[in-house]
Amino acid sequence: MMKFYAALVGVFVLAIAGFIYWDYSTHTMKGSSKDGTWKVLFQEQGPGSLEGGWMLSVEQKTTEELTVKKLAFLEGEEVIVSRTEFSDWVDNVDGTVHTLHPFSFPDLFFGDPPTDNISYQVQIVWQGLDGEEQMEYITLN
Questions:
Q1: Is there a domain that residue 125 lies in?
Q2: In a domain, 60, yes or no
Q3: Which residues span the domain enclosing 92?
Q4: Residue 32 — very low, low, confident or very high, per pLDDT cuts 50/70/90?
Q5: CA nearest neighbour of 128 among 31, 34, 58, 60
Q6: Number of domains observed in the structure of the chain
Q7: What's the whole-model pTM score?
Q8: Distances from the Cα of 50 to the Cαs of 55, 87, 104, 110, 134, in angstroms?
Q9: Dihedral angle at the C-alpha atoms of 63, 96, 136, 74, nearest 10 degrees?
Q10: What is the CATH number of the domain that holds 84?
Q11: Cβ distance 84 to 32 under 8 Å?
């Protein structure tokens, strides 16, 4: 009888874990730069979030001091949002932290869910310590 209960608990735990994985994985689009410098995440906000909808965030994964000049979110060929001014600050409403070094911009875009059969990209323009400006497009999958 103990084996039956153990098997029942095991099946229940697997079902819960499967549901959590499915729920998380189907509501997120992400991408990274080829060299691993940038990570972009476009995900649905949970029911407890202040904003709701989908949020796009950009994060630097290296410690090199880079100066971001521009971020743009593209739906197909159309620019949905573009930012060129960045600073260190904390949102007084929800406590969201924006930093310059390493760069983190957690709320570039709030909006509707992605549309099927349309590509989404983020354009990042930055300048390194050498003064050279670089640009990269990161495709979200």
A1: yes
A2: yes
A3: 29-139
A4: very high
A5: 60
A6: 1
A7: 0.79
A8: 11, 22, 20, 11, 35
A9: 170
A10: 2.60.40
A11: no
**What are 86's two structure tokens?**
């960045």
The whole-angstrom separation of Cα 112 and Cα 15 is: 30
Give 38's contacts (C-beta < 8 A, 6+ positions apart). Answer: 32, 58, 59, 60, 61, 124, 136, 138
Q: How far apart are CA 133 and CA 125, in angstroms?
A: 7
Q: Work out the percent of the chain whose per-residue pLDDT is above 70.
A: 89
> Which one-letter amino acid corresponds to residue 54?
W
pLDDT, the chain, mean: 89
**β-bridge mates for residue 70, sequence order:** 125
Q: Rounded mean pLDDT of 87-108?
A: 93
Look at residue 3 and tell me if it is in a domain.
Answer: no
Largest CA distance in the chain: 71
Q: Which of 114, 46, 116, 126 is nearest to 84 (CA)?
A: 126
